[in-house]
Amino acid sequence: MTFDGGAARRFRSRDADDDPWRGDERHRVMAEALNRYGLWDHLSAELRESAMTETATGCHPLHFDLYFEQVEFSADGEGLAEGGVERFLRELAPALVRYGVVLEVETVRDVDDYTVSINGIRCVVLRPADWESGSPWALATVRPLTVVNQLLAAAGRSALRAHTLYTGGNDGLVLLMDPRAAEAMRASGLFPEDEVPAPADGTVRAY
């Protein structure tokens, strides 16, 4: 995961030579909130404690190695727009089972629209006119995940919802996280808006 220059100045890397790491009160408050809202619940107790401590002392909380294919997944907007939604959702499916959602996904033959069926819900990923909108890759990311979030809400077993980061880009990401954790990142004032995961709720925020 990469961050802009501003983010690099606000957060220390894990292999920084000039110890000790030092965060300020914003980092500490955010770390406590992220822990409370379960960002690290998929980790062992030892790793959870380490992640919280490092975030409180200035490390970025979304460290790719701790999350990849557990609660964080690659979502290449170009690939999704060009027919990759079914494959992507199948990759996401094992993680969703933990939260009571068993995905059944099928690409639907459609003359004009790119459509998938997600647990019987017909989801139009892209219409021909969407290619003129300037954000088809972002639409292809958010629309299917909006359905996933509806299924998570209906299952009622977890507050986690799909969020996107760098939405629609080739380096796009999907994170399964409590919306309150994303809001804690936003409220900290430590991130520009495009570095805060956004809930997949039908609203398109292209990166």
How are the SSEs ordered, and which strands pair?
Blueprint: H1 5-10, H2 25-36, H3 45-56, H4 64-67, E1 72-74, H5 77-97, E2 105-108, E3 114-118, E4 121-126, H6 136-155, E5 161-165, E6 173-177, H7 179-188, E7 198-199
Helix pairs in contact: 2-3, 2-7, 5-6
Helicity range: 40-55%
For the biggest β-sheet, the strand order reads: 1-6-5-7
Low-confidence spans: 1-14
Order of helices and strands: HHHHEHEEEHEEHE
Termini separation comes to 14 Å
In total, the number of strands is: 7
List keywords for this structure.
four-stranded antiparallel beta sheet, alpha+beta, 207 residues, three-stranded antiparallel beta sheet, disordered N terminus
Written overview of the protein:
The chain has 207 residues and is an alpha+beta fold. Helix content is 41%, strand content 14%. It contains seven helices and seven strands. It has a four-stranded antiparallel sheet with strand order 1-6-5-7. Strands 2-3-4 form a three-stranded antiparallel sheet, with helices on one face. The longest helix has 21 residues. The chain is globular. The N terminus is likely disordered.
What would a concise description of this structure say?
This protein is an alpha+beta fold.
